[in-house]
């Protein structure tokens, strides 16, 4: 290696630390000193507000804003395509069938519902008698007042079907939390 920090052959590229730069990173000759030394890609991220060349313009939006289904208020799960009552039904099933511990629902329940889960979970009321894994066969909901969903689900495990009902309440932080859980009578 040459004493000036370049490779033998004089190609001008530094291989060692550059004492004139903080952190001692080497730079390529003739490049921007503010750019990281290892970056060779000259492209920059695209501004999402600017349409790409060759794409059709967006469809016109109605005066009141984009049309929304009247079904559920948007939540983080709903934005990802999962409705809150479906998401909670799957999680409650996992806890009440013994697949997950009760504390898995700790941040997703209010205190009385968590106490109900603590009472229900040790008996694993949705644990199947056979090796068939239980599943949510149907889940539906009603909204008695804004910010509250009362949901009910059919849990199927082989030829056995059990009912599960639960109440979701939307908190001031716009997150849904389970406020009550009930399991139908066992056959």
Describe, in plain words, how this protein is organized in 3D.
The protein is α+β, with helices and mostly antiparallel strands and 187 residues long. 14% of the residues lie in helices and 20% in strands. The chain has three helices and four strands. The chain has helices at 76-79, 84-96, 111-120, and strands at 135-142, 148-157, 160-170, 176-183. Strands 1-2-3-4 form a four-stranded antiparallel beta sheet. Strand 2 and strand 3 (160-170) form a beta hairpin. The longest helix is centred in the middle third of the chain and has 13 residues, at 84-96. It is elongated, with a radius of gyration of 29 Å. It starts with 75 loop residues before the first helix and ends with a strand.
Features:
3 helices, alpha+beta, elongated, 187 residues, four-stranded antiparallel beta sheet
- Read across the widest sheet, the strand sequence of neighbours is 1-2-3-4
Classify the helix fraction into a percent range: 10-25%
Oligomer: single chain
Q: Would you list the SSEs in sequence order as H and E?
A: HHHEEEE
Q: What's the story with the biggest beta sheet?
A: 4 strands, antiparallel
As residue ranges, the low-confidence spans are 61-74
Strand-pairing-aware structural class: alpha+beta
Mean pLDDT: 76
Strand content: 15-25%
- Using the CA coordinates, give the radius of gyration: 29 Å
Number of helices: 3
Per DSSP E runs of 2 or more residues, the count of β-strands stands at 4
Distance between the termini: 82 Å
* Shape, per Cα inertia axes: elongated
């Amino acid at each position: 290696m040459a004493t000036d920090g370049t490779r033998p052959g004089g190609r001008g590229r530094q291989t060692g630390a550059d004492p004139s730069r903080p952190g001692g990173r080497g730079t390529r000759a003739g490049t921007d000193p503010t750019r990281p030394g290892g970056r060779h890609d000259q492209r920059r991220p695209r501004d999402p507000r600017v349409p790409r060349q060759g794409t059709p313009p967006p469809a016109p939006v109605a005066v009141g804003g984009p049309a929304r289904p009247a079904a559920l208020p948007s939540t983080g799960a709903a934005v990802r395509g999962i409705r809150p009552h479906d998401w909670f039904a799957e999680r409650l099933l996992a806890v009440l069938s013994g697949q997950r511990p009760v504390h898995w629902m700790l941040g997703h329940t209010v205190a009385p519902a968590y106490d109900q889960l603590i009472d229900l979970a040790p008996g694993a009321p949705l644990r199947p008698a056979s090796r068939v894994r239980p599943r949510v066969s149907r889940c539906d909901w009603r909204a008695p007042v804004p910010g509250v969903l009362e949901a009910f689900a059919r849990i199927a495990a082989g030829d056995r079907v059990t009912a599960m009902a639960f109440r979701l309440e939307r908190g001031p932080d716009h997150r849904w939390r389970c406020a009550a859980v009930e399991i139908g009578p066992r056959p």
